């Protein structure tokens, strides 16, 4: 949960508003009776930052987070009763960041410990939304064990993928918070956050600089990239294309007819 909330906070700081974010949290640890700090979630043992206390808007939580609902959000196949705020309202010009974390294995990611998102499910959903012109470019970032295997079936152009570990590898937590008795953040997400904490929304850091920032000795796993479906050189793509939102201002000296 802290992994997801940490990245959520980062993209908001870099300019993406809540109305353009779909946040899904399978667990509600902030309100869990075993949480020593009610309504608080931390990603560091120093407890300096409460990830849950700064205008968090959760779109799907608890048992709403299922494989079916996840695929419906991606493909836009909702019941009529689903409000606009819980829909992915993208189009053919959209750059989408899809971040997933949890327990994974060889070509699957677990949902709620009782069902799995398979690699072919993800590939089929992305094929559908590409055909329906629901994105221009899409970056998938996955922090799980054997994360790379979730990308094996991808075949839609415009998709870029990065995973925290190769087939047969585990993804490890970064450190334990002895006060709450659990590990609070995973290594891949921790070092992703460390990269972005050095930036603001106007920095021109590239995807290449992000991808090259991962040290396998610190991660204790091998980061995997899938770039063959992506049309651009990573050195030329700003990270803010996916992790931020920068309003471009165009100066004009001509009058605007009202």
From TrEMBL:
Family assignment from sequence similarity: Belongs to the peptidase C13 family.
Gene3D superfamilies: 3.40.50.1460
Molecular functions per Gene Ontology: GPI-anchor transamidase activity
Organism this protein belongs to: Quillaja saponaria
PANTHER family: GPI-ANCHOR TRANSAMIDASE (PTHR48067)
UniProt keyword Signal present: yes
Name under which the protein is recorded: GPI-anchor transamidase
Alphabetical GO biological process terms: attachment of GPI anchor to protein; GPI anchor biosynthetic process; proteolysis
The entry's keywords: GPI-anchor biosynthesis, Signal
Pathway: Glycolipid biosynthesis; glycosylphosphatidylinositol-anchor biosynthesis
Any Gene Ontology CC annotation: GPI-anchor transamidase complex
The keyword Zinc-finger appears for this protein: no
Pfam families in the record: Peptidase_C13
